[in-house]
Amino acid sequence: MQLPQNTALLLIDVQQGLDDPHYGERNNPDAETRIAEVLQAWRGAGWPVYHVQHHSTEADSPLQPGRPGVAFKPEAQPQGNEPVFVKQVHSGFIGTDLEARLRADDVETLVVAGLTTPHCVSTTTRMANNLGFTVYLLADATAAHSATSYDGTAYSGQQVHEAALTNLHGEFATVTTTSKALESFT
Asked: Domain holding 152: CATH number?
């Protein structure tokens, strides 16, 4: 897979608080390793990297400002002039200047990774597509937690992850893998 020049890497909510046990069992324990791999390649090529960070307004959230969980995970620490867009809702485009910054930087294609697949990753991916960006979503650099349906049915983190990816692929994004995205740098 060859990505066009100036494709941006968009990392969403790679934050310590999403390891909190109250979220439930999580799939893809290697997501952060894949995120670190793609981030290293992006930086090495000098391609643009953007970070989105969730600041929850919910009193009991581990992602509330001032709590340790709001911090980025070590694998995804912003460096240098990599911008950070702080959001309070699921989409990285709402209440931030992410779209304006991407347009000013002539970015038309996004490679998305982060946490969690059915929530902020999905919402941001959908909105990016709606705004006219071409989106590639890295299935192995995202993850989901288990969830219980409206009717009480329990779904594993893997089932939730796969359902979210299935709903995005071909409609809002091309779901792919880290190794395929890294082909652009070889």
From this structure: 3.40.50.850
